[in-house]
Each structure stands twice: as structure tokens, then as C-alpha cells.
Amino acid sequence: MVVYAIVMFFVAIICLIVGIAIRKGNTYLINMYRQTRVKETDRPQYGKEFSKGLFILCVAMLISGIVSLLGESKFLIWGSIAILFAGIVLSTIIFVKVQKKYNGGIS
Predict the structure, then answer these.
(1) What residues in the chain have per-residue pLDDT under 50?
(2) What is the predicted pLDDT for the residue at 76?
(3) What does the radius of gyration of the chain's CA atoms come to, in whole angstroms?
(4) Secondary structure, 3-state, the chain
(5) Distance from C-alpha of 81 to C-alpha of 51, rounded to nearest angstrom
(6) The Cα angle at residue 58 between residues 67 and 22, in degrees rounded to 5
(7) CB 43 within 8 A of CB 25
């Protein structure tokens, strides 16, 4: 589980860096296709709201990695996976809401 924790921490750090950059206004880090109908005046707010999803994902990965370091029982392994899955679901919900609000839909 140490390898899993290291991977989670590494990916969480990358997501954190990207999330901070997007929050500061670098929305070019988001796929341009996802921004086709976002107004230029809305891009800063779009980036701030989009980055919330990345931050939630980052926190979920960090907590999942920490839980995986506590031991190798089935309870802890499933708990770690459940935390990661919950973070993925919650961040996806945020991404979809932001896309619907600023881009008029997810496609």
C-alpha cells in the first residue's frame, strides 16, 4: 500500500498545482473544447469554480493515500478506495455543474 500512497500523493500534488493555476486565471489548462461557449468575461469565474472540483479530487486522493498507510486490512483498503471513489464522484458533479452553467452543457 506504500506504492499506492506515493502514487496518490504525487497525483494529488499535480492536481493541486494545476488547480491553483486554473484558479489564478490560466483557463487554457482546461481543454478548449470544454470552453467553446464560455464568455470571455466569465472565464475567471469559470476557472475558480472548475478548480473547486480539482481541489476536492486532490483532498480525496490525499486522504485515500493516508488511509492506505494505516494498514493492509480489507477494511482499510476498501475504505481507501471508497474515499477515492467519493472524491471522483463529487468532483465530477462539480465539473458537470460548472460546464452546464458556463458552457451551456457538457458536450
Answers:
(1) none
(2) 94
(3) 16
(4) CHHHHHHHHHHHHHHHHHHHHHHCCCHHHCCHHHHCCCCHHHHHHHHHHHHHHHHHHHHHHHHHHHHHHCCCCHHHHHHHHHHHHHHHHHHHHHHHHHHHHHHCCCC
(5) 23
(6) 175
(7) yes
Closest CA relative to residue 15, chosen from 51, 64, 46: 51
pLDDT at 38: 86
pTM of the model: 0.88
The C-alpha torsion from 28 through 14 and 63 to 70, rounded to 10°, is: 170
In the structure grid, which three cell numbers stand for residue 54, read together? 480539482
Q: Please report, as a single letter, which amino acid is at residue 45.
A: Q
